[in-house]
Amino acid sequence: MSPSSAAPAPSPTSPDSSRDSLAGAGWDDRTPGTYRELMPPRVSNLSWLNPATLWKARNGPLASLLGDPTGSQRQQWVRGQVERGAAGEDMLIERDDPDTFSFLLLGDTGEGDAPQYAVVPGLLKAGAGTRYAVLCSDVLYPVGSANEYGTKFFRPYRDYDAPIYPIPGNHDWYDGLTGFMRVFCDAPALPGPSRPRTGSAGWLRSLLWRAPEAPDEARLAQARQLRDKPEQAGRPPGPYWAMDTGPLRIIGIDTGLLGTIDREQGEWLARVARGPRPKILVTGSPLYVDGEHHPCAIDGGGTVDDIVRDPDNHFVAAIGGDIHNYQHYPVDVDGRRIEYVVSGGGGAFMHATHTIPAVTVGGVTEDRFRCYPLRADSLAFYSRLYGRRLHLRRLFDLSPDQAAAVIADRLGVAPTRPSTARVTLRTRFVAAVLGVATPSGHRQLLRLPVRRVLTRVLSPGSATYSPPFFKNFLRLDVTPSAVRVRCFAATGLREHEIDPPVEDDFTIALPPLPE
Questions:
Q1: Is residue 179 within 8 Å of residue 145, measured between CB atoms?
Q2: Is the pTM of this model over 0.85?
């Protein structure tokens, strides 16, 4: 699609992206950027191999097994905000943005380590002139404690001189949302842990459930000084909100621990979604992801995507975090185009893209699908990670060209980036055991963990603390008639800090408002 007038087209000297060359992906250049100068002198890299980390994050698995209290707790938070006068019934943020302006969007940021800080220089460069940023899902890892916001939120974004409006992800709920609500909404803690009225499952959950960590107010006050400029001020009314900004309404929802929303939030969403104003949904649980449709259930019936697809609500896009990469599905819905986007590559460990089968979902086929990192770069990354961890580099290590060739062979698609490498028995074996699907969608029975276990255990290891990092953020340029969306790469390399590569670039036509 051609760019809108919201922002100038990339110049002829714009850097190659990963779709163009190995250099564009960051494989050829080993010159690290300046991001380490932004980091604290000492950084504790988050390790999911540490039993203490797993024990801190136990509320998610407990909610899956023994019942999820998120809905009732969320209602308590929202009612408290309304009763204190900190929020209206519609949870509305009103801004005075002009009809033509720009904003940033990034998701799944805060591990407080090199990959998170590596996003910052390019974000400041490409985000120059933007009026605010939206942060979708998982502000902090592992459990969203208010006492970790200094190095995982305030310090990284201290030089971004505009407000940041977040929605929480499941990791923010591992702390009962206490840190999120204290930091962003200045809300006092809830009166106490919820206790089940009846049932052995509820009793066991309450026994094992991790209680929120009490904020250290002095430490938090010191951290706030890093982002205390008047132009950085901006407070969301609660864990979900609607924002009128220029010609758009942006609606941010809170999908809690398990990727659903409660009845009360569903009724609110249906209410604020009405009307002719064009809308963008921001969610912690993407509606299209990894070649599948996940419409997001609403307690009591219906789904979030039912509301997004309703033509009377005029949604033009739905952007979600949670999955730590970039994906784009342009879906035709009853003659309209809705852009479904995953943008969770803002700093946390990378989720694989090479496990995504050839896309045929929602009328979107492989030629219209976009992802970052490319499947080939994802496979090369994970092959090297396994080669290093298993001390089997000669078996596992694939070059990006070898990975591109075997991806094309197994999926039955043309390689995104041309490759002259041969497909061999070894490369087929590595692709199969690391989860690359066949054209029929089948995977080999012998398969090493990549999607969940690997990214929670191995991926945050040493291999991810040197470039290229394959992170991303979005810039959205708005005019009364269109929104231009660009996905920028953040590799951690100096060249890409100076001029961030554009990995996707598309324009959303906005319907005219009635007179």
A1: yes
A2: yes
